[in-house]
Amino acid sequence: MLKHPDLTQRRIEAFLEHILRPAVQIDRHPLRIEINENPCETQAEAEAGPWKEVGQGYEYGPAYTVFWFRLSGTVPERFAGKTTVVVAEVGGERTVWKDNSPWCGVDVQHSDFGWMEGAAMAGAGIVPNGGEAFEYYVQSYTRNSETRVSGKEPPRREKTEKVSHAELVAIDPEIKAYAYDIDFTFELLKTVPENDPARSSILRALNECTNLWAAEGSDSVGKARRIIRDTLSGLNGEMAHTIVPIGHAHLDTAWLWPIHITKRKMAHTTSTQLGLLERYPEYIFAHSQASQYEWLEKEYPALFERVKEAVKKGKWEPTGSMWVEADCNLTGGESLVRQFLYGRRYFRDKLGYQTEDMWLPDVFGYSAALPQILAKFNIKYFLTQKISWNQTNKFPHHTFWWQGIDGTRVWTHFPPADTYNANCEPKEVIHSVRNFRDHGRSDQSLYVFGWGDGGGGPTERHLEFLRRGRLAPNYPEVATGKKALDFFREAKAKSRDLMTWVGELY
Length: 506
Description:
Layout: H1 5-24, E1 25-30, E2 32-36, H2 43-47, E3 52-53, E4 59-60, E5 66-74, E6 83-89, E7 93-98, E8 101-106, E9 133-141, E10 161-162, E11 165-171, H3 173-189, H4 197-216, H5 221-233, E12 242-248, H6 259-279, E13 285-287, H7 290-299, H8 301-312, E14 316-318, H9 333-351, E15 357-359, H10 370-376, E16 381-383, E17 399-403, E18 409-413, H11 426-435, E19 444-449, H12 460-469, E20 477-478, H13 484-494, E21 500-502
Parallel strand pairs: 12-13, 12-19, 12-20, 13-14, 15-16, 16-18, 17-21
Antiparallel strand pairs: 1-11, 2-3, 2-5, 4-10, 5-9, 6-11, 7-8, 7-9, 17-18
Helix pairs in contact: 1-3, 1-4, 3-4, 3-5, 4-5, 6-8, 7-8
């Protein structure tokens, strides 16, 4: 037993934040930054210029305006053979373009340790040889820090974004993986009760890793990773429950930004997630709203073709069956019918995919006419989580039958993490299991993770945490590699004696 566990925890946290994470980046080299202040629609237009060189502290705006950056340089010889990434902290929500199409999104949640890892130098393979010249084009659309969910918006600033820096960064992949080990295990520690012997074992292992680094530096990484692995594998206990994690990027079609920004957010999100799908074979991403796919088809055709290919491979899952994620209170039956008619038709005709679910996580209330409408379309499953927002009448179920006004029923699931923006940290994963209100009737639940509302979706950290969760003690089974539809079908088939809710959901 460690004498001062609270101090030890703070020491481990400081080690991760101030020593280990910075150690991932082993070398850096500045890049030339140029800006094109014309609001060009494509890379091809932007390349024509005019360009001017800018540096740290350069400000630009106003809000909701498109700018382009060109980053260029030559790979130093000392970077030869090293995994190299590009860090582009030039402000705004950024989308890197390649071959005149969105390639990779960069924002505050998707910078990780740099973008384009493993392919930072076009045509250079996994690592550069040194001496390669390169340039990248980055579209940035500016944000509005004065926006408000409620109340009057204050006057907007003329300049809303600021350039920080752009660099080539060489990283150590083994230290990076080790940092995720420490990060996940430290978060897991927080979920274990103080009187549980497992807590002392995990804390002791993390402290030993910290001591090893102090004595041996980066030479301790292999030994320390084995300590963590052996400690966790030696602990007993499991939760008799399965979570099926599904990546998602909830994107409000109209909320705190104009529609032209929503369209760019869709391209930004799509390119980011396609890249992650390539890097993580077990990862599946789900996205709803046929109208947003049509934006890609018409405005980003090459990106749309990549989505179609991912759908064919079973890596990208169209969900929801609707044209947009529609309000279900103020609208009428005819409008709702057309939502499903046009949405399912688009998915079938353009993507060759037949949806079977109503995926509507973020609207306020659901008409009791919906079960009948869903049945007429042969839509078999309904998902939302918005009911968890109710401050007065807490809903009693997460998996149940929902019965409409004519007696029609639809199998329904509310993800028990009570969010569509789950973060994959152990505390939230375990909460989702303990919060599930239908144990005994069903033994699995959907876990919808990724940054949302303004899109973005899952990050590298989310996916690395899920990988480690598959081997963690006192944890639910993490069933990666399944689509939401796989979950719906299996959970419905295996659930038993489900309760029935009659009437509207609110």
